[in-house]
Amino acid sequence: MELREEMASLAPELPTTESGKDSIEYLSRGKLIQRRFWRHRLARLGLPVLLLLYLMAILADFIAPYPADQRLKGFKDAPPSTVHFGVGENRFQPYVYARKRSFHPKTFREVYTEEEDQKFPIHFFVRGEPYEILGLFKLDLHLFGVDEKANVTLFGTDSVSRDLFSRTVIAARVSLFVGLGGVAISFVLGCLIGGISGYLGGIIDEITQRIIDLLIAIPTLPLWMVLSAAIPREWPVAHTYFAITIVLSIVGWTGLARVVRGKLLSLRDLDFVVASRLAGGSDLYIITRHLLPNFASHLIVTLTLAIPGMILGETALSFIGIGMQEPGVSWGVLLQDTMNFGALVHQPWKLIPGVFIIVTILMFNFVGDGLRDAADPYSL
For the segment 38-80, what is each residue's pLDDT rounded down to a tens digit? Predict the structure, then answer.
């Protein structure tokens, strides 16, 4: 009796309701993963930032004040506009000054100076060039803009006088969604091929693993370069985008296939798999409905961490000139201007697209770390 009372005193007290009865909260695995994920501070930062970036990509034409190919006459390699704030007409009004281009007497480089006697307010929700959102809605409303006599270049301009802010925002559509497209294709290939290899085994497993060994042995970047060089230069932008997505996913499935194979080798002889087989379930049905869901959390984490690799792959191909081509625009295409070290020293604002790449990769890694910790069954 004394031992029982002592053990009861050591047991943790359960929360009680107003009626005095013990209250126990039962959570599904999904709810537990969700709670663990939101306890990860970096993941809580990364997910909203990624959502904002993808929203920016979808609404790129609305956010960008100029089309990606519009040239601002007389503003070659112009620095970012300085936005001033002042009170006018009883409201808080941002504005920019008109800028005048001149040449430095010694270096003969363009110098832009503000003319403070010409002030141009920045208006919000202005009419401009027409565009389509998701190919469904035709609009001509832009987030902000100035009068036609002036211009506002928040990130400066490039070597052919195009607004870098507009091009960076519009380029996000290619750079962000090429990662989703490439990972989606490689995810399906990895799960399907790895699942068949691990579940069937035998000669099929041997042949599949040797093919994977061959693909892994080939350096990734040179392989991407060879495959991208085969894309015809005269193809339209949409076809080139789709071809690059295929190229990035060709070798992206091998690592996932290895993981899926190993998991299925350890699960295929368990009782529930044998029972499903005896009940008449097909091999594909057993793989997709019984085996893969058993480690779905691991697949989700792998999927999240694979997207940054696809984004960097597209950036690398476009940067060296064998990925997206003009008039297509991506963050890798925009970084081509930074190859010239002299131009980079005098126009450092051309590195801004690289900042977007770094932030995107970091946020994906934060979210992936949060999912990995949340899906770990041994985590507290």
Answer: 888 888 899 999 999 999 999 999 999 998 888 888 888 888 8
- Count CB-CB contacts under 10 A for residue 115: 10
How far apart CA 333 and CA 337 sit, in angstroms, is 8
- Cβ 216 vs Cβ 280: under 8 Å: no
Backbone angles phi, psi at 129, to 5 degrees: -65, 135
Structure tokens at 227: 């495959």
Q: Rounded distance, CA 110 to CA 78, Å? A: 8
Whole-prediction pTM value?
0.80
Residues 6+ apart with CB under 8 A from 27: 35
Q: Is 88 helix (H, G, I), strand (E, B) or coil?
A: strand
The residue written with tokens 């040449």 in the block is 103
CATH tag for 41-58+166-379 (out of 3.40.50.300, 3.30.310.50, 3.10.580.10, 1.10.3720.10): 1.10.3720.10
* Lookup result for tokens 């052919």: 160
Q: Where in the chain is the domain with CATH 1.10.3720.10?
A: 41-58+166-379
The CA–CA distances, whole Å, from 152 to 45, 84, 121 equal 30, 11, 10
Residues 6+ apart with CB under 8 A from 120: 95, 96, 97, 98, 146, 147, 149, 150
Sign of the dihedral defined by the CA atoms of residues 307, 313, 319, 324, in that order: negative
Q: Which two tokens stand for residue 303?
A: 């999927």
* Distance in angstroms (rounded) separating the CA atoms of residues 253 and 249: 7
